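Escalation from tier 1.

The customer reports that the assembly of two entities below gives different structure tokens on two consecutive runs. Tier 1 could not reproduce it. I'm attaching the input and our single run for tier 2 to review.
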Amino acid sequence: MMIKLMALVEYDGTNYHGWQLQKGVPTVQAALELALERIVGVPTRVHGAGRTDAGVHAKGQVIHFSAPWFRSMEELQRACNALLPPDIAVRDLKAAPEGFHARHSARSKTYVYHVLNRPLRSPVQRLYTLHVTSRLELGPMQEAAAHLKGTHDFAAFGAPTDGTTSTVREVLDAVWESSDQEGIVSFSIHATGFLRSMVRSLVGTLLLVGTGKIDPAGFLAILRSCDRSRSGPTALPQGLFLMSVVYPAGDAREESGPTKRRSADV
Amino acid sequence: MMIKLMALVEYDGTNYHGWQLQKGVPTVQAALELALERIVGVPTRVHGAGRTDAGVHAKGQVIHFSAPWFRSMEELQRACNALLPPDIAVRDLKAAPEGFHARHSARSKTYVYHVLNRPLRSPVQRLYTLHVTSRLELGPMQEAAAHLKGTHDFAAFGAPTDGTTSTVREVLDAVWESSDQEGIVSFSIHATGFLRSMVRSLVGTLLLVGTGKIDPAGFLAILRSCDRSRSGPTALPQGLFLMSVVYPAGDAREESGPTKRRSADV
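Tier 1 run:
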């Protein structure tokens, strides 16, 4: 019997060329599909909520897939975690609602970007943070980030995906936080959809605010310009984590409407 | 002019066969000596405070070395960090006091061991924690750890090093703490000296207390037995960090006395 399943996936993206299948290179999707094929005995397509770039990590990627399975969810999850490499793990595996699609049903997603702000690089943080040696001023970065909230045309910070042309997205929250870990500051952004490379482009531009090269008003001017050439450099991938994906309450039925086609490609 | 220098070293031990030079395999000491030789132009012996095992990390290893150097400390530190691989970094480089020896002058050291206690393994924590799936009870582990404080014969938890035969060491503090990071509990131990594998042997045995296989009184009985065969398994290296080394106040002159020959080999 084919059943439709969903799960949360955590991965360390360091050794992968991103989420999505690509010929000849290791990807997270390929690793999951290979493990599932070995378990259920037939090729199994896995769909993810966010198509993370090479080197980007996830603590809360959501996947769905359909597979023939006759035993318990616990057994399937255990089998996945036994066959997957140590840098990918599956949790909360369960039956998916009828019509559920990990990407199309997503209402919103949260990404977090970690920056190590100190003069010296850190060997044990190097895989999960961007190292910035110049002193960052959190106040102006926070002020600039606040301009992101609401529905805006984010054309200055990325290109559309999914075959659409709109670059309008709705940001529900965008905030910088200091960590209790020495020197780490993190940018958290919750939005109904993201453009390609949007979080990393925002971080790269907000870091220019943090070092005083742009002021918060200048950041707002870049946002309003809708001019991709005015934003800062795209920040390196290793600081970025897909943290969580929100689906409609109660179940996760596919919804039409403005959020449907705005899913994350970061 | 030859000058004697000291520095703090942070490293990710994942890809090294421990601190100490070994023919044909990468070690942290070898990486530091190679970088220094390339900078100063002559072979340079580096001495470390703790000879960490393969896979063990350090946030506060202390080193000393003598080298011909005519420019600033900042330039030498920058050169080291430019030539060292990303998983090793040098900080706080400065002139060492006359007679200073990173290992022999050390008064005490602190090691921390991180355990991820949850059913599911974690891809992004896997290099820096030991994964324990059985639920750990922190109360009994804490009670057992308290028995370690003071001067005891720790023969049940390791073999002596440095050519001595004594297995008596003084533990200044030993405590378990929950982290704010979900599921992580950490064992911190501050002692004037350590036996070979002592921290990992203590952790392996304390984990048996945490899962109820031994009670705190049983742990005390193992300590008192001085019988290496009664302690638990030696915990895997990846959870262990050398955090800090304490030297005599004011300077770091070599001291005779009981602490001199009790330096860490973990």
